[in-house]
Amino acid sequence: VRDFEQMNSLAERFGSDLAVIGFPTNQFGHQTNEKEFEILNTLAHVRPGGGYKPNFPMMGKIDVNGENAHPLFQYLRDTLPTVSDDCGGQGSDFIISTASKVLWAPLSRSDIGWNFEKFLVNQDGKPVRRYSPKFETINVAEDIEALLKNGPNALD
Predict the structure, then answer these.
(1) pTM, full prediction
(2) In 68-140, which ranges are continuous DSSP H helix?
(3) In angstroms, rounded to a whole number, what is the distance separating the alpha carbons of residues 70 and 84?
(4) Which of 29, 47, 112, 120 could form a Cys-Cys staple with 129, CB 3.0–4.6 A?
(5) Is 22 exposed, middle or buried (0-12, 13-18, 19+ CB in 10 A)?
(6) Calpha distance 24→34 (Å, rounded)
């Protein structure tokens, strides 16, 4: 719930200076098992509910890990193999500890660990930060501001 609302907030705050894009996947605990045409209604009426509507594009469901991972996420994971934050105190190298939660193969050290892992891509199309699901989405604003103020190499 928090992440969806905060993605809307970032999109509103930065307007045309930021492109927020949502990529649903069903690879994490089968939590997105609705059909694609049901996703927006699920967001509005179930989670987060309350009539929520994303103010950013929601893409079709894709795989982000494993042999069928979408090429965009293969590229993002190859470029930034681990998160830049401490994963809620578990360390930036933390990976899923319960094998029963893993629904893809083969496993890779760079796999996305869970829903709402976030990637920040700079003005030149280069991925510059990867954030764990524990990192509050709204806090990406500081890095966005740095990129907008100081240019695409601000976070190097």
Answers:
(1) 0.91
(2) 71-79
(3) 22
(4) 120
(5) middle
(6) 10
